[in-house]
Write a structure and sequence with these properties.
The structure holds 2 protein chains of 2 kinds. By secondary structure, chain A is of the alpha+beta class. Chain A is built from 5 helices and 5 strands; from the N terminus they run E-E-H-E-E-E-H-H-H-H. Chain A has a 5-stranded mixed beta sheet, sandwiched between helices. The longest helix of chain A has 14 residues. Chain B is an alpha+beta fold. Chain B has 3 domains: 139 residues, Aldehyde Oxidoreductase, domain 4; 186 residues, Aldehyde oxidase/xanthine dehydrogenase, a/b hammerhead (Aldehyde Oxidoreductase, domain 3); 357 residues, 2-Layer Sandwich (Aldehyde Oxidoreductase, domain 4), CATH 3.30.365.10. Classes of the chains: A alpha+beta, B alpha+beta. The complex binds FE2/S2 (inorganic) cluster (2 copies). One FE2/S2 (inorganic) cluster (FES) binds next to loops of chain A. Chain B: This is Aldehyde oxidase.
């Protein structure tokens, strides 16, 4: 690491409510920072090109592909990753609905799907099943769990609002 | 069992679901290992030839780079290719990365850059300059048809292509109705969402390899032999696998290179294969097939001829059961099949979900649809007219076959009776509507290799079940939990299942839809053994309760027993050797798939708006996870029918797709309604637990059902997969 430290930059992020600092190369993506530096491996890498959505996290409440973002460019942001959603004893309603509708198989796309769905619900644009399908199409699932995914999201969207994390 | 199955057969939510929805399931690239180095592959830009020189000076001086490994400076490994054989490998010489200067396929690894960060390795890999001596390559299957051959050696465990019966040539030439056509299927890539990855923790005594594989045991044995790691303990861990679909059946390039680098540098290494390089790990063989069907005026089959030519690599004869079902699916006394391979300068093809069957049945089931129109018989009626209760290719009965029920229940649910037979006769708004159907079949078998399982009573009264088998998203954790809970008369909360670790009791590869039957039977046997042991120990200890086994296995009774006896001894291991199925029956799963497509006439955009999949697969252990398997396989079938094409530029000999932008897999918006029905099927012959497996069957009949629906909608018979907009538009204009 020493050989590279002359170009390293400091970055401060609030991740799942905890302030974190790192000194990183400017070329490090938010995704790699989360996974390699902070060991928050719930955020997945499926393509590194913004094409699969496995790396979806919420930045200041908005869903983004963390592989497309250089970590330093989000200095000072609030980041929510899957590790900050729900607890072992109390799953987030979406997490709970994903399990109940078997909206996952291998589980690799799942954290991205859930973060994306939280973003989608807070955007408030998708109302119908077709709109959910369209607005969730940035999140690929090779196991093909789409039907369960839409079922889960539809159900949570229809449920009377309760205070949810994040 | 002295009580009926209570938990198996129920839709228990996926046991590993809560972990996965919280991002807590760890995959191969996610293990924290101290002093970890990162590796990146430099891949060949030519399809065939030799590496003349590799200039790695710039890469080596890049900040953070530790080493650049090539065939010239790699550590020693065995020169004999037979030592790299793996149980899923076809006949031939397995490919070994960085073995010598030969380039066998475009995308082949020619160097490995190791750095102290992922970014350093990745960026430096772009600075490695390789010069080549090019040789003439061939990657075009169509150009190699004249050199197609019948493989002289059959793949281990693969049933031979059925022998001819009757005189198919004569019967065909004399048949009153004939259809004959050539079909092609594109090469496809598996593309599980998790990138192939390996993390090697290198120690003096132990090497722990976190790997994305469908068989930790085969990888362990492979590494020990290939890298002479006999003095070290090698442990391969794959607790969670982010999909594989066959690409993890054999030890992959990632594990080979990661361990190679770890051994060279005596350091821990992580190698993640980026999406573009995953195209060079293996593919579903593309094919050219000709089907000739002869029939009487009512559609009764008089002759079936099916010839398939499939791609393989220069170094191996990749084979799959492409035509193995063409002789047995329908009643016909004159059958002639020819399964041939043609060598291309590519990586070896690799089994992909329903290998062979998904390809061969596409051609046969489209040909059946063509016959339905040639005879003016409803496609479903045609299938029923040719229904067979016996496997005529082997001249024996099926262990069970509820295909008739699949047809009936699927048709009912779909509303098939409301279909009008003529093409272009159904419409909704400005879209043409098409309804098509197809039959699916896959073998129901147990693994030819024995499986073991261990179960032990834990100090807290729970049971721990261990097996080296993986769960690639199929639901193995869940069904094994259910089986154990039933056998031990316990609630599922009292069963802990640990999987995906080569240090656990031996299990074969997870594949071929045999895991549930094989590993499940082993778990059941181990649990039954332990139960017996507990009951006799309880008797010895004078614990009688009400005399019922349920009570003796209850937490309270077990706590008493644990106080009186050493719980370490309260364990049992069982081995299941391939169920003595003999040659008396043919085991098969079946499906009937009904598809609705809607096609924008002007734009030729196809939407698969509805699929009904009726499946007969013996006993269903968990309808929820089994349904997900069928839905997932159907989604992949939509991809096969409409999108997936690992197209090659034959001038360059290189796959033109490098990302999900140019290799389309179905997205959420592409998937509308998919309904799954399981026809009841009881089978006490196919496996000790009556299970047939559901991993592959869902993939077989979807593509032909969609192709047939497209014909029904448009009157255009597209015989080449995928049926893309340009193909549809071109055939129309
Ligand atoms: S990894 Fe970011 S979109 Fe695929
Ligand atoms: S659950 Fe496997 S990719 Fe979505």
């Amino acid at each position: 690491m020493e050989a590279r430290s002359n170009t390293a930059v400091g970055v401060t992020l609030t991740i799942n409510g905890v302030e974190r600092n790192a000194s990183i190369e400017p070329c490090v993506t938010l995704l790699d920072l989360l996974r390699e530096e902070f060991h928050l491996t719930g955020t997945k890498k499926g393509c590194d090109h913004g094409q699969c959505g496995a790396c979806t996290v919420l930045v200041n409440g908005t869903r983004i592909n963390s592989c497309l973002v250089l970590a330093v460019s989000r200095n000072g942001s609030e980041i929510t990753t899957i590790e900050g959603i729900g607890t072992p004893d109390e799953l987030h309603p979406l997490q709970e609905a994903f399990v109940r509708h078997d909206a996952l198989q291998c589980g690799y796309c799942t954290p991205g799907q859930i973060c994306s769905a939280i973003g989608l619900i807070s955007e408030g644009r998708a109302k119908t099943r077709d709109e959910i399908r369209e607005a969730m199409s940035g999140n690929l699932c090779r196991c093909g769990a789409y039907i369960g995914i839409v079922d889960a999201i539809e159900e949570v969207m229809a449920a009377p609002k309760r205070k949810t994390v994040p | 069992m002295d009580r009926g199955p209570a938990i198996t057969g129920k839709s228990i939510p996926r046991i590993d679901g809560p972990l996965k929805v919280r991002g807590q399931a760890k995959y191969a690239a996610e293990y924290e290992v101290p002093d970890l180095l990162h590796a990146a592959i430099v891949s060949a830009s030519i399809a065939k030839g030799r590496v003349i020189s590799i200039d790695s000076a710039d890469a080596k001086s890049f900040p953070g780079v530790v080493a650049v490994l090539t065939h010239q400076n790699r550590p020693w490994f065995w020169p004999f290719s037979f030592l790299y054989k793996d149980p899923a490998g076809p006949p031939g010489q397995p490919f070994r990365p960085l073995y010598n200067d030969r380039v066998h396929f475009s995308g082949q690894p020619v160097a490995l850059v190791v750095g102290d960060t992922y970014e350093a390795a990745r960026d430096a890999a772009a600075l490695v300059r390789v010069s080549y001596h090019r040789e003439q390559h061939s990657t075009d299957l169509a150009a190699e048809v004249s050199r197609a051959y019948k493989s002289p050696r059959r793949r281990l465990g693969l049933a031979p292509t059925p022998q001819p019966t009757g005189d198919a040539d004569r019967a065909f030439s004399e048949a009153p109705v004939k259809v004959e056509a050539t079909y092609t299927t594109a090469a496809e890539n598996h593309h599980p969402m998790e990138l192939f990855a390996t993390t090697v923790e290198w120690g003096d005594k132990t090497v722990t390899v976190y790997d994305k594989t469908q068989s930790p045991k085969s990888v362990e044995i492979f590494l020990k032999v290939a890298f002479r790691l006999f003095r070290r303990k090698v442990r391969v861990v794959s607790s969670f696998v982010g999909g594989a679909f066959g690409l993890g059946l054999r030890p992959q390039q990632s594990v080979f290179l990661a361990v190679l680098a770890a051994k060279a540098l005596k350091r821990s290494i992580r190698l993640v294969i980026p999406r573009d390089q995953m195209f060079a790990l293996g593919y579903r063989a593309n094919s050219i097939q000709t089907v000739s069907l002869g029939a009487d005026k009512n559609g009764h089959l008089l002759a079936v001829r099916h010839r398939a030519i499939a791609a393989t690599s220069r170094n191996e004869d990749a084979q799959d059961p492409m035509l193995n079902f063409s002789a047995s699916l329908y009643r016909c006394h004159n059958v002639k099949l020819a399964y041939e391979l043609a060598k291309l300068d590519t990586v070896s093809p690799c089994d992909m979900r329903a290998p062979g069957a998904a390809t061969g049945m596409f051609a046969l089931e489209c040909a059946m649809d063509e016959l339905a129109y040639a005879t003016n018989v409803d496609p479903l009626v045609l299938r029923l007219a040719n229904y067979t209760e016996r496997d005529q290719s082997e001249n024996r009965p099926f262990s069970s076959k509820a295909l008739r029920e699949c047809y009936a229940q699927g048709a009912e649910r779909f509303g098939w009776a409301k279909r009008s037979h003529a093409p272009r006769s159904m419409r909704k708004g400005k879209e043409l509507v098409g309804w098509g159907m197809a039959t699916g079949v896959w073998e129901a078998a147990m693994s030819p290799v024995p499986a073991r399982a261990k179960v032990r009573l834990l100090a807290d009264g729970r049971f721990e079940v261990t097996s080296s088998i993986t769960d690639i998203g199929t639901g193995t954790y869940t069904i094994l939990t259910q089986i154990a809970a039933d056998a031990l008369e316990a609630s599922i909360e009292r069963v802990v299942v640990k999987l995906g670790d080569s240090a656990l009791p031996f299990n074969p590869i997870q594949g071929g839809s045999w895991t549930a039957a094989t590993s499940g039977s082993a778990v059941q046997a181990a649990c039954n053994k332990l139960k017996k042991k507990i009951l006799s120990r309880a008797k010895q200890a004078g614990i009688v309760g009400n005399g019922q086994s349920t009570e003796l296995l209850s937490p309270a009774a077990l706590a008493d027993l644990l106080r009186l006896s050493d719980h370490d001894n309260l364990s049992a291991t069982a081995t299941i050797i391939n169920f003595p199925f003999g040659k008396k029956y043919t085991g098969a799963t079946h499906s009937a798939v009904f598809a609705e497509v809607r096609i924008d006439e002007e734009l030729a955009v196809v939407r698969v708006t509805r699929l009904v999949c009726a499946v007969a697969a013996g006993r269903i252990l968990n309808p929820a996870t089994a349904r997900s398997q069928i839905i997932g396989a159907s989604v992949m079938g939509i991809g096969k029918a409409l999108y997936e094409d690992a197209a090659t530029d034959h001038n360059l000999g290189r796959c033109m797709a490098h990302s999900f932008a140019d290799y389309h897999i179905p997205s959420n918006a592409d998937v509308y309604e998919i309904e799954v029905l399981f026809a009841e099927e009881t089978d006490d012959k196919v496996s000790p637990i009556g299970v047939k497996g559901v991993g592959e069957i869902g993939s077989v009949a979807v593509a032909p059902a969609i192709a047939n629906a497209i014909f029904h909608a448009t009157g255009q018979r597209i015989r080449d997969l995928p049926i893309t907009i340009d193909r549809l538009a071109r055939s129309r204009d």
